């Protein structure tokens, strides 16, 4: 009889039909003259049973995990008490080996032990991706990027694709990756913010999903050298508008991911206790955070009590966020610990209209601010940072030719994913993570 070629995700719609499936052998076991295979094709998992002559065939005994096969058979609903993915199995009547994977010492198991040396897994990332956890995170990632685009479309924000090779810095010279650009000095972009700002007069509110690069010297669980940066810039807004827009984008994006038929159940599995955040988030000013940290005996980087102007470093920030246990909009950071482009608060020029979104388990997932609006104050900000304003003429022109009160933010895709999928490190949330010393595969 004829067999329709289908993907694993639609086997449950084909009960009683003869179908053809193609994929990788994810699990393999023989029992009482039967051979059970769990087949994986990227869209899901299905159990296949080989019996009789098929199970006894010479070829069946050579099958290995990660081999590819084409298999034909009828999809049957499993009786009560038997379990397999989707509650069905394919009763095979014919199969062919497409590519036999090695056995013995060259075999690869996608069942990754908890105590496996992480550097081995990173060297073998191309194979490790086949494991259930990493592939699940990548599917949630795909849904997240789709969800965030959907939210921006709904909010009327226009997508642009800024360049990766640039001659300006955004977030400090110490983390720039330099490159030789036809004999000129250029950098890999740290943030597309400056380019987004220039788009406002042409396109109105804009966003991009673009790689950002940071030559981070330190090994931490939440820093990558290359990450996928979701950034948006909005014109004619107040700081309050910016904060509520950020809440909307985060809550709606998470809602759409949880509603997604593929990603929703994966988040549930990876992070069973995950609670979708609700607007409005808890708001906390920087000075109140210092007070909170001091009251709770959490010291600054020098082991002393926090004082105004101190950076709240990763460990302290996470301790505070985990203890408070809900999303926090941390606002009004001092001028001296923030970037050159940030607008000062009207009621206190020592602090800026800036915000970090902190999530339990990860800490900062978003950083944003209102921007300086005038040419002179911007040039002063650049000089304070030791930056020669000549290379920034195009950015300064944004203020010269019709300035506006505007602001924006950047969301770290891998950090949101680490929070959503309960991963210890953002390295699990990037396809091929780049960090200090690692640029392969
Ligand atoms: O706080 P950051 O440095 O802010 C900016 O780049 C602004 N120019 C964004 C803007 O306003 N358009 O970075 C924004 C976010 C962080 O909150 C974090 O989630 C993520 O980007 N991020 C990193 N993620 C992984 N590895 C790194 N090294 C990261 N650095 C920042
Ligand atoms: Mg930041």
Automatic annotation (TrEMBL):
Query: Which EC number(s) are documented for this chain?
Result: 6.1.1.22
Q: Which reactions does this protein catalyse?
A: tRNA(Asn) + L-asparagine + ATP = L-asparaginyl-tRNA(Asn) + AMP + diphosphate + H(+)
> What GO biological process term is on the record, naming one?
asparaginyl-tRNA aminoacylation
The alphabetized UniProt keywords are: Aminoacyl-tRNA synthetase, ATP-binding, Coiled coil, Cytoplasm, Ligase, Nucleotide-binding, Protein biosynthesis
EC main class here is ligase
GO CC list? cytoplasm
**Domain Aminoacyl-transfer RNA synthetases class-II family profile, which positions?**
138-433
ATP-binding found in the keyword field? yes
**Which top-level group of life is the source organism from?**
Eukaryota
Give TM regions: none
User: Where does it live in the cell?
Assistant: Cytoplasm
GO-annotated molecular function: asparagine-tRNA ligase activity; ATP binding; sequence-specific mRNA binding
**Family membership:** Belongs to the class-II aminoacyl-tRNA synthetase family.
Q: What is this protein called?
A: asparagine--tRNA ligase
